[in-house]
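Internal ticket - ligand job 140, adenosine-5'-triphosphate:
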Amino acid sequence: MAIEKTFSIIKPNAVKKGVIGDIIKQFEENGLKISAMKLGLISKEKCELFYAEHRERPFFGELVQFMTSGPVVLLCLAGENAILKNRDIMGATDPKKANAGTIRAKHGDNVGENAVHGSDSAASAARELAIFFDKHEICN
Ligand code: ATP
Ligand code: MG
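stdout (structure tokens):
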């Protein structure tokens, strides 16, 4: 199977709770390697571009407000089947519905503040990585 790259965000609620290390450990223990990583605030403009597919959803304003409310960790994760694997490790969007042991079950607070983002396809991963990382910032 090919090595894939995917994009992940450790969201502001998880950074505030001090569980960056626990989340990264879960990625690494499941065979995902960190190829790029930054901590910082994201601008409203970049956040709106990133979540453009949700622009018409009723929670869009709240989502952008939350995602720009504090520092996040931006990650490129690499590994075999990385895109689907990351989605499995994250768990369902709503932490109440996420399988036990997944990141969202452990650290999500509600459907909006659900601790992590992960790209849902190869096309999304490429689009999302390009928003937050320059090519030279991603290691192989
Ligand atoms: P993500 O794209 O963040 O990995 P996802 O693919 O599981 O999550 P999406 O349907 O793409 O879920 O929604 C994107 C994000 O919008 C969710 O992670 C969550 O933060 C927020 N969101 C989704 N549904 C709701 C909702 N009903 N109310 C509030 N926020 C929501
Ligand atoms: Mg999504």
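Auto-summary: Helices lie at 12-17, 20-29, 44-50, 60-67, 82-90, 103-107, 122-132. The chain has one domain: 3-137.
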